[in-house]
Amino acid sequence: MADSYGPDMRLSPTSSVVPAQSASPLAEPTQGAARRPDRPCLVELRLSAYAVHRRAGLPLGPLTLFAGPSGSGKTSALRAYEALARLGGGASLGEVFLRPEACVPDRARPDAQRRRGFRIGCTADGPEGPVRLDLAVQAEPELRVVGERLTSGGLVLLETALRDPSRRAVQAAWHTAGSAPVTRAPLPDDRLGTPLLPLRVAGKTDGQRRVLAAAEQMVVALRSVFGCDPRPGRMRLPVPTGSGRLLGGCDNLADVLWRTRAECGRRHAQLVAAVRAGCAGPVADVLAEPLDAGRVRALLDRGDGGRTELARLGDGELRYLALALVLLTGPGVLEVDPAGEVPAAMQTLTVLADNLDRSLDPRQRTELLGLAVRMCERGHIRLVGAVSDASWAAGVDGVTVVHLEP
């Protein structure tokens, strides 16, 4: 790919994969080397030039904790992950980056045309082996894609570049390996090209089929992300009944419990057991009851005829309950955009949890971590959380801790 708009905007100009710089010694995976996943999933997040990050390669396991003090970039790393997920689902740059200037690296200087930008990327592992996606975005003076590269096994499968700034398109070239080695065509400059490939690539040659397989693996790995940061203040209030799909702030927890308690007795029993382990006092059931005007409130059944409204629980108890519910449910219950064209058995839901341990006491942290490890081992769910201190998770099997520094 041709250089674009100076070092802050440039993807590596080589035609082979350039290994991302490791996050070591900042990264300390606490698990052994994992086998290749049956379902496509992200195994690395690259923040080459994004917010406070430069040349950062963050490893991702089934359960990953970004740890570091305030200002180390934990939240920005989660936002970059979510941004890639939304772009992989077909969202435009404008929908994803509402404040693109905030993504530009600190102290990045504009070029002669006053242009600045940022670079992010990821690696998805799966049946096709590791597939890398790298993206360069111009944030100022207008938001647009500068370049994109999809690679697998050292081979560039898709490459785009902004050749003519006056046109609202990038020039794309994808691997063909037929009578012509590549096919060239314009793609929009306001969205990711990889999820558009199934609409543009015929799949007639081995090369084209390889492009389609790699693109599908990347898109499936990126899709179905749920950003979750429970807000206890709103969870205490009665809520109207609605779709029964849990929002990222878990405001409508009572409505979701109203639905899930009747839908799956086994999962609900698991939730009750988790709540019993993490909340004070006896817990026989977690339920919702209707009120007037189509509203519903959530309660704990204490088993002795007494009930406790969630409004009476502490912040830690409410956050613990909400996070346990998220880990025990799936895309059908959470407000996510699953890849409907992909069989459920091939999909993995990734939960992005900022301030994962906020308000939790040591017992709740331990119980929640144990639940997360068990659920992530099954392969249908992954968790990427941000914490200020991960010493309580150090050495736990199945947990990857990535230490970030300001």
Helix segment count?
Answer: 9
- How would the global form be characterised? elongated
Tell me the β content: 25-35%
In helices, the fraction of residues equals 10-25%
Whole-number mean pLDDT:
88
Low-confidence stretches: 1-9, 12-34
In whole angstroms, the N-to-C terminal distance is 31 Å
Q: What integer value in Å does the Rg equal?
A: 22 Å
Specify the biggest β-sheet: 8 strands, antiparallel
Structural class: alpha+beta
Order of helices and strands: EEEEHHEEEEEEHHEHEHHEEEHEHEE
Strand segment tally: 18
Tally of discrete structural domains: 2
Strand order, sheet with most strands: 3-2-5-6-7-8-9-10
Please describe the topology of this protein.
Blueprint: E1 27-29, E2 41-50, E3 53-59, E4 63-67, H1 74-88, H2 93-96, E5 116-125, E6 131-140, E7 144-152, E8 155-161, E9 169-175, E10 182-188, H3 197-200, H4 206-222, E11 225-228, H5 232-235, E12 239-240, H6 253-263, H7 265-278, E13 285-290, E14 295-301, E15 307-309, H8 315-328, E16 349-353, H9 362-377, E17 381-387, E18 400-403
Parallel strand pairs: 4-17, 4-18, 11-16, 16-17
Antiparallel strand pairs: 1-18, 2-3, 2-5, 5-6, 6-7, 7-8, 8-9, 9-10, 12-14, 13-14, 14-15
Overview of the structural elements:
- The model is unreliable at 1-9 and 12-34 (pLDDT under 50).
- The protein has helices at residues 74-88, 93-96, 197-200, 206-222, 232-235, 253-263, 265-278, 315-328, 362-377, and strands spanning 27-29, 41-50, 53-59, 63-67, 116-125, 131-140, 144-152, 155-161, 169-175, 182-188, 225-228, 239-240, 285-290, 295-301, 307-309, 349-353, 381-387, 400-403.
- The chain is of the alpha+beta class and 406 residues long.
- The longest helix has 17 residues, at 206-222.
- It is elongated.
- The chain has 2 domains: 7-222, no CATH class; 231-336, no CATH class.
